[in-house]
Amino acid sequence: MGNFTFEEMNLMCIYNTGSRTGLIDSLREMRGELSPEETELRELTDSALCKLQTMTDDEFAELELYPDFDQ
């Protein structure tokens, strides 16, 4: 289903709007505000967006998007 990394999951927790399409829009908006030097965050965002775009809304609903501060 997406095989998101720990970092991608945390990023999605921060920008989660409650829906897959809302999260995609939120991540795209954030990505547009990144400076050219923020290449690592840009690559992380691009990777998460790619995976979100290929999954269904039902698959998205199965994700547990709660930040894991213990890792």
Automatic annotation (TrEMBL):
InterPro entries according to UniProt: TTRAP, TTRAP_sf
Domain of life: Bacteria
Name the UniProt record assigns to this protein: Tranposon-transfer assisting protein
Organism encoding this protein: Ruminococcus bromii
